[in-house]
UniProtKB/TrEMBL annotation:
InterPro entries: Methyltransf_11, SAM-dependent_MTases_sf. It comes from Streptomyces africanus. Keywords: Methyltransferase, S-adenosyl-L-methionine, Transferase. The lineage of its organism: Bacteria, Bacillati, Actinomycetota, Actinomycetes, Kitasatosporales. This is SAM-dependent methyltransferase. Residues 22-122 form the Methyltransferase type domain. It comes from the Bacteria. GO terms for biological process: methylation.
Length: 245
């Protein structure tokens, strides 16, 4: 997903431009810190106190220049209008958050309002069109059959929304369908510009599994599959990029 995001940023903004980035539901700050290290001005919004503590600890270990480029705000992603003025950001990230929001449309509309004209909205969601894949591959036939007719599921774990450690929550959560999100993005003025699959082949890997020795080849395969039909359509996650009109 990081490679996909960088591709969109490079293709949309001049090289060397210091972007104003908002990471909503930043988790432990993996993407926020990465973008701050790249020279961008980053604001992380997170409501989980434990995640904030981890992010602040990580930030404290960075050089002063990076610390000055990143700020962390405790708050709910649905309240962006309370914290920021419309059009305040060039890039807005919302990764691994929508699955925990029962009614995502107001959140998405608020995120779109935060974007300056031409700004990039990056969403990472659970793929509602592929919920039968995991139970089917694991031989849970009843679970696979039920998954065809729902967008609700019980996650085996929650991974920090920006790529950190899996955390078991035990919550019933929801997935999103590409067709529905495409319509929603058009309706809030940030129509879909590009989309990718994430975790096409690796979603069934066991939690805590050892990283393979040839991880670069694994990533290359996932990156290729994530942009290639029909593979991307059955990915566990979808990475959608909308552009503010």
């Amino acid at each position: 997903m990081t490679r996909q995001l960088d591709e969109q940023i490079v293709g949309r903004f001049p090289v060397g431009q210091r972007l104003r980035v908002l990471d909503v539901g930043m988790g432990q700050g993996t993407q926020a810190l990465r973008l701050a290290r790249a020279g961008h001005q980053v604001t992380g919004l997170e409501q989980d106190a434990k995640m904030i503590a981890v992010a602040r600890e990580s930030l404290a270990g960075e050089p002063e220049g990076i610390r000055e480029r990143m700020r962390i705000i405790e708050g709910d992603g649905r309240d962006t209008g309370v914290h920021f003025l419309p059009g305040s950001f060039d890039v807005v990230l919302c990764h691994g958050v929508l699955m925990y929001v029962e009614e995502p449309d107001p959140l998405l509309a608020g995120l779109a309002r935060m974007l300056a004209p031409g700004g990039l909205l990056s969403l990472l969601v659970r793929n509602g069109d592929a919920l039968a894949i995991r139970p089917g591959l694991s031989g849970d036939w009843a679970g696979a059959l039920a998954a065809f007719d729902t967008v609700s599921y019980l996650p085996h774990s929650r991974t920090d929304s920006n790529g950190g450690t899996p955390i078991r929550l035990g919550l019933d959560v929801r997935a999103d369908r590409l067709k529905d999100l495409t319509s929603t993005l058009a309706g809030i003025g940030a129509p879909l510009h590009a989309w990718y699959g994430v975790r096409v082949f690796t979603d069934t890997a066991a939690d805590g599994a050892d990283v393979p020795a040839d991880v670069e080849t694994l990533l290359a395969v996932e990156e290729k599959a994530g942009r290639t039909d029909p593979y991307r359509g059955v990915a566990a996650l979808l990475h959608l990029c909308g552009v503010r009109g």
